[in-house]
Amino acid sequence: MQAPRLVATDVDGTLLDPEERVSARTGAVVERLVAAGVGFVLVTGRPPRWIPPVTAQLGVATLAVCANGSVLYDVAADRVLWAGTIGPDTLAGIAAAATAVLPRCRFAVERVDLGAPFVAEAGYRHAWVDGDGVAAERSVLLGEPAVKLLIRDPALSSAEMVTALAPVIGSAADLTFSHPAGSWRSPRRG
User: Fold this and answer.
1) 94 and 127 co-located in one domain
2) Residue 125 lies in a domain
3) How many other β-carbons are positioned within 10 Å of the β-carbon of residue 50?
């Protein structure tokens, strides 16, 4: 059997346990892979700013494909190597369509600017605790390119929001969510 040249792994629920820890066994396997010259890459819906605590547990600085494939992040250099962003016109169009079917929804964006990577409008409630956000008016929030537009309606689950949004968003964006329990009541980080 030929040894792999690359191992790419999901983070939440795969590499990390429910308490967001890397088990000793998993850490040892990753260490052996890297020592054997096998490439190791994290693949996650998480933004780049949530990756250093994961790699700190591994003792391996690596590349990470973040934000559902929108960002290639070099953990060792703490630098975004590539980002596929959503432009302001598309963000505004998606927000208008979402507001039409979910009038109580609120928005946040993930950006690759590490100075203010998470920006949310008043009333936005995250599915997880995130004290690093910057508050902004909707026009400011949607006025710059972003790698993710997050939409929350506190009365609906993530699956219910996707069902409501899919017909109005169409092919303008890929609708994703981290887990079925993705309501604002969930304490889990996504």
Assistant:
1) yes
2) yes
3) 24
* Cβ atoms of 15 and 25 closer than 8 Å: no
Per-residue 3-state assignment (H helix, E strand, C coil) for the chain = CCCCCEEEEECECCCECCCCCCCHHHHHHHHHHHHCCCEEEEECCCCHHHCHHHHHHHCCCCEEEEHHHCEEEECCCCEEEEECCECHHHHHHHHHHHHHHCCCCEEEEECCCCCCCEEECCCCCCCCCCCCCEECCHHHHCCCCECEEEEECCCCCHHHHHHHHHHHHHHHCCCCCCCCCCCCCCCCCC
Asked if residue 74 is part of any domain, the answer here is yes
Instruction: With beta carbons less than 8 A apart as the criterion, state whether 173 and 158 touch.
Output: no
Residue 17 belongs to some domain of the structure: yes
Residues 71, 40, single domain; the answer is: yes
Total-model pTM? 0.82
φ, ψ dihedrals at 53, nearest 5° = -65, -30
Domain for residue 62, yes or no?
A: yes
Structure tokens at 160: 């219910």
- Boundaries of domain holding 157: 88-172
pLDDT in the model for residue 187: 34
Q: What is the mean pLDDT of residues 144-152?
A: 93
Domain count, the chain: 2
